[in-house]
């Protein structure tokens, strides 16, 4: 926007003493006092602000010039002149007194400009704070120029360019707080930190950098903040540097980095959210801030920061006694419902979630309220209420500071003074001001309390839960019985053992401190599971395996929903609970808004997997990251299945897509490493086939991977072209060994998958990788029926696209080849009998191998495909239930029989998914408690009903199997 400031005025203070204001205005030159457009604003300054009126009355020509010029133009000119003030003309000595006077005169002019534009309604808050921040940047830069030029003249500093002494100086000045965020207030201190690069300081030989740069930093502060006849420029605060009580004013970048990496606190992380390189060697400062990214932005959701930041806020209230909300004498920054609560509301959520959500890493408060809404962490109502309140409170803060140029945020306590201030702020009277202030402050208080002060009550609310001492508290035993514990004495002894440090995970003082707060709520959460005793025992075992638990305990203490979920996992899905114990931050995904919006799309899940793995520099790092990525994604899928967000069929597709991504990423990683060592095979191509549940996209939470590797190469040139050449067949078999190792080898981050290669062409005989060009002939001439049956669920999951297409065509041709239906039925019956004789079954809960179970239906579907696929190729590529229903449409079996079989298959498959998720060990030998959990998950009232229903369906399936294959 352009135009003179006077033409854009839209507001003015309400007068309290009009007569005195007019008398003061009468002392100004006629050109000012007779200007009707400027008069209301000037009268308001004369009436209310001794500081601003002193500037106007002392320099009326300055006021006139600012009013007659575009405020943007005036601001740019003042900022430019301020930045240039520290550079002496060529050949001139540095005159610190002259530079200081120029800086102060510019500051007075800028203070008047900002006040006119702010009070006059010309600039919104964001423009006001940006102008103040830009001017402060220029002031620091000018002071730095002056002292560097002085040092250069003395031969102590050796600039790259005397005209630009800061360039490549190795000196870094960071602005923090409101300065770093471009949110500086009207009379604020400026929070800065001075670092230097000890590897490349441009100093005279033998000069120690720490004392040199510390004295320079102190000189910069004196030049800006010492009061003279011209006033001051800015008060400078260096106390945000590392350990300010025992460190020099300037310290090396390396020392700073080591400090933040090893000793940095959460409040320092919060401060560095807003950090910005404002002067000195700007590129070096930006590189340092980039290196600090892992310190500020944790890889996982960081709930521990909530406790620390809230503790800071509680300390402020305790020290200053701000327990109530009143207007007279209220501190609008630190008091209840004040500016600090809005800032803490934003910064804490940035600390917690910003590590995983880069959109939350911005510096400006109102912008980040918008980002928190866009990312799904707060609602639009909270965003709007807090944004309006923040702008209102910051504007009132500026009015307070414009009275006498004081760094204050406290409203007057005297009623008459408060009434005058309300009018200076543009309100007709005190009640109108009070109403607005209280409305905004209460809105802030409400939203702040929801985040900080309305944390879940960590007491049980159901009675005593005391675990100290050596004897059992009777009231505690009664409470535990009421919560559902059948063995309360054992429960008390288990928890008492934690406090005595009997489990490694809870031996540290901090772990036991958090545990003491958490135990009542945790026991209540465990009481909500089907078997609280078993859930508590599972947690005790987890504490025995975990090296530390502070992270997990802090997360559980901070989030009631996660406590309930973790308790549910302990009682219902021990495998998932083990995952949480091993890697607590997998719980992050459960409170991510995306948790309730699952996807089973393979490409989307592959992209998520690759994003989690990133670009590791070494194979060992890749192995660790791949295991972390798979663990997190499989946990999310299992939690969604447990929560009812994903149906078992959808979970199967998701588990399969995660495995696809893991195999593909592992193949790429081992191929790169193998090629670097042995070179590429001329014309070499490779694909990986998935069989069984992976092939049919029905993988469960604990399925192994049935894989086969096919390769091709130029037969005229069989040798790889690298430092250690290998024959093509040897190369691809060794590559397959490395792929299997990448998928199966346990690392410090645990395991990934178990792999079975026995379904490859030739079974367990011969080489572990198969030459693709021999596949077709093998399937036509040598493969047994069982291999074709297995091949019916095979698909290429990764590798060379052209070889994948060729392989799929060969497989399709083999499966759809004409066959004698009677021979197929006989062969399938014989195969089923062989499996039954060799493996038997595990009883009524063995849904896979028991007669009439999943294997019977699988074999029926495979028999239909192999016997009739030549005439009905659309039977290919379907899951067993879909293939059977399609076969009925072709008249290959009665529709009623197909309905029975497909319904049974889907029921068995659902329960099988639940088993693999919820039952430790052999799913067919689940405990009564685990079987009850399975029944409830299946929508049935109890285990007996579940088993009876499964038995009845299996009997029907077995009868149909024998009839249809008879």
Query: How far is the first residue's CA from the last residue's CA?
Result: 88 Å
**Number of DSSP helical runs:** 42
The CATH architecture of the largest domain can be given as 2-Layer Sandwich
CATH class of the largest domain: Alpha Beta
Give a count of the beta strands, DSSP E runs of length 2 or more.
10
Shape: elongated
Helix and strand topology:
Layout: H1 18-25, H2 30-33, H3 39-48, H4 50-58, H5 60-67, H6 71-84, H7 96-119, H8 125-153, E1 171-175, H9 177-180, E2 190-196, H10 209-225, E3 236-237, E4 250-252, H11 253-263, H12 266-273, E5 276-280, H13 282-291, H14 293-296, H15 304-320, H16 339-353, H17 365-374, H18 380-404, H19 415-424, H20 430-453, H21 474-483, H22 488-499, H23 509-527, H24 532-545, H25 550-558, H26 560-572, H27 574-582, H28 588-591, H29 602-613, H30 619-643, H31 648-678, E6 685-691, H32 692-695, E7 705-712, H33 728-744, E8 755-756, E9 769-771, H34 775-781, H35 785-791, E10 795-799, H36 801-815, H37 821-839, H38 854-868, H39 880-889, H40 895-918, H41 928-937, H42 943-964
Parallel strand pairs: 2-3, 2-4, 7-8, 7-9
Antiparallel strand pairs: 1-2, 1-5, 6-7, 6-10
Helix pairs in contact: 1-3, 4-5, 5-7, 6-7, 6-8, 7-8, 8-10, 12-16, 15-16, 16-17, 16-20, 17-18, 18-20, 19-20, 21-22, 22-24, 23-25, 23-26, 24-26, 24-27, 25-26, 26-27, 29-30, 29-31, 30-31, 31-33, 31-40, 34-36, 37-38, 38-39, 39-40, 40-41, 40-42, 41-42
């Amino acid at each position: 926007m352009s135009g003179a400031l006077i033409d854009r005025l839209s507001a003015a203070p309400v007068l309290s003493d009009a007569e005195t204001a007019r008398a003061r205005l009468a002392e100004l030159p006629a050109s000012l006092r007779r200007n009707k457009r400027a008069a209301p604003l000037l009268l308001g300054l004369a009436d209310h602000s001794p500081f601003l009126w002193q500037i106007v009355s002392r320099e009326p020509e300055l006021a006139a010039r600012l009013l007659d010029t575009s405020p943007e133009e005036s601001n740019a000119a003042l900022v430019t002149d301020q930045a240039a003030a520290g550079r002496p003309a060529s050949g001139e000595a540095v005159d610190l007194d002259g530079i200081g006077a120029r800086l102060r005169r510019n500051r007075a002019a800028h203070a008047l400009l900002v006040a006119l534009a702010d009070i006059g309604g010309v600039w919104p808050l964001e423009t006001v704070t940006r102008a103040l921040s830009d001017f402060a940047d220029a002031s620091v830069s000018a002071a730095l120029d002056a002292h560097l030029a002085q040092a250069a003249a003395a031969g102590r500093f050796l600039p790259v360019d005397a005209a630009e002494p800061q360039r490549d100086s190795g000196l870094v000045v960071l602005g923090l707080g409101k300065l770093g965020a471009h949110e500086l207030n009207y009379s604020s201190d400026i929070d800065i930190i001075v670092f230097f690069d000890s590897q490349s300081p441009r100093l005279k030989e033998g000069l120690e950098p720490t004392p040199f740069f510390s004295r320079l930093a102190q000189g910069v502060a004196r030049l800006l903040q010492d009061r003279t006849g011209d006033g001051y420029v800015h008060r400078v605060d260096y106390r945000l540097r590392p350990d300010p009580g025992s460190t020099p004013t300037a310290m090396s970048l390396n020392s700073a980095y080591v400090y933040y990496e090893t000793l940095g606190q959460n409040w320092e992380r919060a401060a560095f959210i807003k950090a910005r390189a404002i002067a000195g060697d700007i590129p070096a400062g930006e590189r340092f801030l980039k290196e600090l990214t892992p310190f500020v932005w944790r890889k996982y959701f960081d709930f521990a920061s909530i406790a620390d930041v809230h503790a800071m806020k509680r300390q402020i209230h305790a020290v200053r006694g701000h327990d109530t909300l009143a207007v007279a004498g209220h501190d609008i920054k630190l008091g209840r419902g004040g500016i600090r609560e809005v800032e803490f509301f934003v910064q804490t959520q940035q600390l917690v979630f910003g590590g995983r959500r880069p959109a939350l890493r911005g510096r400006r408060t109102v912008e980040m309220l918008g980002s928190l809404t866009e990312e799904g962490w707060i609602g639009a109502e909270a965003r709007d209420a807090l944004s309006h309140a923040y702008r209102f409170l910051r504007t009132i803060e500026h009015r307070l500071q414009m009275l006498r140029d004081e760094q204050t945020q406290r409203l007057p306590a005297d009623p008459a003074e408060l009434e005058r201030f309300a009018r200076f702020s543009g309100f007709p009277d005190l009640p109108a001001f009070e109403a607005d202030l209280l409305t905004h402050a209460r809105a802030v208080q409400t939203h702040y309390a929801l985040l900080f002060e309305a944390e879940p009550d960590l007491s049980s609310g159901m009675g005593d839960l005391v675990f100290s001492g050596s004897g059992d508290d009777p009231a505690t035993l009664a409470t535990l019985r009421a919560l559902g514990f059948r063995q309360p004495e054992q429960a008390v002894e288990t928890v008492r053992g934690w406090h005595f440090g009997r489990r490694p995970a809870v031996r540290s003082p901090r772990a036991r401190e958090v545990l003491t707060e958490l135990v009542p709520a945790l026991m209540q959460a465990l009481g909500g599971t089907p078997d609280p005793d078993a859930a508590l025992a599972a947690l005790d075992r987890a504490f025995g395996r975990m090296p530390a638990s502070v992270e997990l305990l802090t997360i559980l203490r901070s989030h009631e929903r996660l406590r309930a979920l973790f308790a549910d996992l302990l009682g219902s899905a021990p495998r998932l609970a083990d995952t949480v114990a091993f890697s607590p931050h997998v719980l992050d995904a459960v409170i991510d808004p995306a948790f309730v919006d699952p996807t089973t799309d393979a490409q989307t899940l592959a992209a998520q997997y690759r994003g989690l793995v990133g670009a590791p520099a070494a194979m060992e790092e890749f192995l660790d990251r791949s295991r972390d990525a798979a663990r997190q994604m499989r946990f999310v899928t299992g939690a969604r299945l447990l929560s009812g967000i994903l149906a078992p069929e959808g979970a199967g597709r998701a588990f399969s897509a995660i495995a696809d991504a893991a195999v593909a990423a592992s193949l790429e990683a081992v191929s790169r490493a193998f090629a670097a060592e042995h070179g590429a095979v001329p014309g070499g191509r490779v694909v990986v086939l998935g069989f069984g549940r992976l092939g049919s996209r029905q993988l469960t939470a604990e399925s192994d991977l049935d894989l086969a590797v096919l390769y091709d190469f130029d037969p005229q040139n069989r040798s790889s072209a690298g430092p250690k050449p290998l024959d093509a067949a040897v190369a691809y078999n060794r590559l397959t060994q490395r792929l299997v190792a990448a998928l199966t080898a346990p690392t410090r981050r645990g395991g990934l998958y178990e792999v079975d290669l026995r379904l490859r062409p030739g079974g367990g005989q011969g080489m572990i990788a198969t030459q693709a060009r021999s596949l077709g002939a093998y399937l036509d001439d040598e493969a047994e029926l069982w291999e074709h049956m297995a091949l019916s669920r095979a698909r290429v999951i990764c590798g060379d696209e052209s070889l994948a297409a060729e392989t799929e065509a060969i497989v399709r041709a083999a499966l759809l080849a004409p066959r004698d239906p009677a021979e197929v039925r006989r062969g399938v019956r014989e195969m089923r009998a062989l499996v039954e004789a060799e493996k038997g079954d595990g009883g009524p809960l063995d849904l896979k191998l028991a007669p009439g179970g999943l294997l019977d239906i699988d074999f029926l579907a495979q028999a239909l495909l192999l016997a009739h696929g030549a005439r009905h190729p659309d039977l290919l590529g379907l899951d067993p239930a879909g293939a059977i229903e399609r076969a009925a449409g072709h008249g290959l079996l009665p529709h009623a029989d197909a309905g029975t079989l497909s319904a049974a298959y889907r029921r068995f498959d659902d329960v099988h998914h639940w088993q693999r998720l919820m039952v430790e060990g052999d799913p067919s030998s689940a405990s009564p408690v685990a079987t009850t959990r399975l029944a409830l998950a299946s929508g049935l009232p109890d285990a007996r009903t579940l088993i009876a229903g499964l038995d009845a369906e299996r009997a029907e399936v077995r009868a149909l199997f024998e009839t249809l294959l008879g």
